[in-house]
Amino acid sequence: MSGTNSTATTQSGAPISSLPEAQDVAATDGVLGVFSGKAQIAKPADIVNAGMPTDVVRTTDLNEALSGSALNQYVAQAATHAAASDASADRSETAAGASAASSALAAQTGAQVATIAAGVNADADRAQNGADSAQATAAGAGAILAQNTALASMVANNPVQFTNKGSWDASKNSPALTSGTGAEGDFYSVTVPGETSLDGVTDWELLDGAWFHNGVWNNLKKAGYPTIAQRFQGLLGVIAEGVTLNSRTSGAFTIKDALGYILTAIDGLGNISTAGKQLLLGSTLLDCNAKGQFLFGMRDAMGNLAWGVRADGSPAFPIGAARADLGPISVASNDNPNGVIVKDKNGFVLLDTSGYYAIKTGDFTAEEIAERDRMQLARSAATMAGPGDMLRARPVWGISISIATGQSEMMGYVSLPALSLTQPYDNITFGEDPRGFDFGIDSAAWTPRGGDPSPKPLVAVNVDQTTYETLDLPASLVYKPATVDVAVPTVTSGDPQIQITTTDTSIDFTTGFSVGQTIQCAGFTGTAAVNNETGGEWYTHYITITALSAQSITGTCDGVWYSWTPVAVAGATGVSIAPLRITKDFGEQQSIAALNFYRGMQLAFRGLPADASRRLALLSCCVSGTTIEQLSKGYSIPLFDRISQSFTIAKSQCDGLNTTSGCFLIEFCQGGSNTDTDYATYYPLLAQYFADVIAEAKEKFGQTKDPFIEIVPISGMNLPSTGIMDVCRAQVDYVLATPGAYIPTVGYPAIDYGPHYSSNGERYVGAMRAKVRHRVITQGLAWKPLIMEQATLRGRTVMLDCHVPYPPIRSLKVWRGQEPVLYDTLGFAAYDTVTNAKLGIASVSIVGETQIEIVLSQEPTNPIWVTYGDSSCDGSGNIFDSDPAVSSDLYEWVEGNGAPYSENIADYIGKPYQLCNPMINYAIQSVKG
């Protein structure tokens, strides 16, 4: 029999491991034998003193039973008892039992017991027969042991399997073992202790293990216990405290009381019958009470009836039971007013005899919400556990390329100064910038920045928007005069002016500033701090220099959306004046941060510090301020051709390096320029655009698999207000319907400059994209973003079911410009589906891990659109999941490098970006509930 997963059985084969009080008792063909359970055998004194007439076996510790003096005493007593036995059949059977005890002992002590048994009085026929039986049993036990294969987990600190070779006499070295010679894993149980020398070991005690491992014999102390102690059996039964455990019945096993009446029996098929009327299974009581209402009932640990079966076979529940779940439906009583409600598995009412639901005008009960929450949690978990897309191209080439497409949000517009100035891994681009040189709305071809298309480390570059020349920005420049005075010049037309002067002659503004440059101030107090300093919700209050001297600056009070009025100050101290890079140039690209973070996770997933044989590259063919029509193939200005041109250059460079190449990903963020495009127009244009880009990639690289498509739907201040979020909704619907396409995130949570992101904001969005990209492409797992899935309208209440990747959902402040905000509606809005009229919202609440409740100001007459993050909420919202992921990049702010003082946030600086998933901007129509 196998040494693992063995189960002790009765003579008829039924398992006994579940018997009450039988954990220390098991069955075998003798009083002593191979025992499964605790290592215990019969105590000799108990057997002898009992006179052996009733086949009683009591147990004690194995070490005590096997001690030398106890053994000798037991054998002598057994022999004496056998010799003096009566010749009747009953006494013969008793003597045989004593001899069998010797037999089983021999199974554990081998030749030693056989030798002792052989010395029993030769005139006692029954004793001699017992000795012969002992020898036969020992041989049989050895054969069984030789067949066993025990797991090495039975032996301390041994993680491998071993082969059980049976017993070994360490006194006589039988069978003969030789130092350094054996088969790996051979294992012998010591049945006779001794001092045979094996590989330097001379002390072998009873039931030690001799194990051949790594070319030598090892002594595993007492390792023979789990090998020897497999079975233990009484001849006719085992008595414990007056209760007899017996297998010699018509069934497989019985339990009898002291008078011999059967209490419990198990037949050969495992069926259990009991004389009692109750069966306790854990804390559940199965009760057959013929005198009560039920023929059969189930009670809890407190005795309360859960349910039962009447004499006619009908199921019933006790009075006051709240509900019954019957597979796909639930039946519940309802006290408002009295009645019965039948619901389907999703919690929707199928039958209501009370009329309560028919007259409801709003509220969802806590029970309903909890049930919807459970169902949605299950759906979300099933979605995330599903298989990923294994049919798209993956980065398997020598150089695998991701191409960024779209408009300004994807290409680092106004995201200055760039932060990703060093390459942390081995990512490359072709030339000095993945955007190439000229990326305006013109007929220029894609050409490498710097003229040399050879692979170079992928880093962010600051580029002038007019000349496309690389900007050489100073690392840091800040003036801190001892005192400053602020005057407000009189202007007759145009924006207000401000004049800042200082008497601090150590300051020379002309060494770092120039006319036309934008600058910012910090350190003012009072009303001057509110007006004269850069910051505010929409990145406002900066100065465009119009005149300059060593200790004087004059400029226009400018802002993103409007001008501002300065405050005059005399002798202000602690003021700082630094550049502000609000110019419409290009800097940090989110696609660079995304590829860097992705590369780090990819290498870690593969357990590599680097892999020069398989690198990642980035190309960009984004064009600021373009519509989907302008970006598409066949437009009068051939912007689309830059994709083909960049692919051709990349392929040529890879061929020159004698390495394979291909495109594994198309990145896309666009839509802000399609301000008057409806859903029906945008969707097919988007689908055709990707079909054309995929075709170019497959043609230029000769690859057979389509690349993945990674879309960041349009959001924030760039979200068009056409229809019911038409452009954004078309982008989301395209992804949901297209294999290989996925949405990693949206951009509205980032710190922004209105329609565009700050440098830290770009890197945050890039990290969000990389996190999901790793899951989808590297790990091959399913993904769906946090999104509304169903809106159930009842009266004036809307209940939203949301897919939540990492529950629970929660509300967090989100950046709107340079200030974090929490919207009253958390970003939700509602519209009549017939008139498109906006409806009032009284409240929005998170009521579950996946559930959001919206209460309208009044009950609508038609179904409604529910939107999240539409233009009425600045394309933003406050709903996030609980994903604990963080970025590898850290938040950076350096005074004087051009970043605004409003981004000097102590709680952020030097810490990774938090990457919990924001809800995706989207709109769905309600269903009646």
TrEMBL record:
Give positions of region: Disordered: 1-21
Q: Which domain of life is it from?
A: Bacteria
Q: Where is the composition biased (Polar residues)?
A: 1-15
Protein name from the UniProt record: Sialate O-acetylesterase domain-containing protein
